[in-house]
Predict the 3D structure of the following.
Amino acid sequence: MIAEALQYLATSALTGSQHRRYIRYSVNLWSRASRCSKDWASHEANCKDAVRAAISGLSQRRTAVVLGSGLLKDVPIEDLAESFDTVVLVDLVHLVSVRLRLKGKRYRNVRLIERDLSGYDDLKAGRDPEPFGFLRGVPYLDFVVSANLLSQIGRGVKRQFETEVSSGMPADSVERLISAHLQGLADLPCRTCLVTDISYAVIDRTGKVHEEADLLHGVAPPEAKARWDWPVAPLGEESRDYQIVHKVIAAW
Ligand SMILES: C[S@@+](CC[C@H](N)C(=O)[O-])C[C@H]1O[C@@H](n2cnc3c(N)ncnc32)[C@H](O)[C@@H]1O
């Protein structure tokens, strides 16, 4: 609890006021990631392998952008920082522990951007969502990875949408913003990699599935080159008798 409180306070001091409300989600993710580190290890290794495969053979390595960089657990930051001139990490929040880790590695070519990547504000203003429009201002873009971000956008948008029911947001906002993310990636003029969980299942000790849900709300993801299971809540994390397992895909 003390470590969480320190993370929270130190990160608050470094985070813009419009993004401070998201710090608690990042701190919760950080706590869970450390509690579940053994169970998450193969998921994290698979994510890093997907990114390495996506950049292999890339002849120009000037700027790489990581969307949803978060804790940098499932991103091979060492490989990216060593092989690209500049690496831009984009997230709602960059925890102080992540900033310290980057400082400790003395990366001179890693930049942090705090930004909402959902496109929610575009939709709210009645515009077509263009969540990656800001990338047009990033020079020499050679690679973009969306790193376990898409399902979180769906969750965040759903949460925000439900608290702003009378705001005039279209009823299909979640689906539209998930589609905008996929289309935005597909339209980028560089190599891309999408790593995302696409569904979850609640499974008991006998292996029986009790509940399943589509995290992409019916929007079809691109064809996967790799897929695996991620035990997001292994037995004992949320319940003694049930685990929650997400299906993850990688496409590049
Ligand atoms: C499951 S975590 C990804 C973990 C990260 N790739 C890593 O290597 O540790 C999802 C990340 O997406 C970020 N996120 C969620 N919604 C976002 C949004 N609308 N815009 C930008 N980042 C968002 C969260 O802050 C979190 O860091």
Summary: The first strand starts at residue 63 and ends at 67.
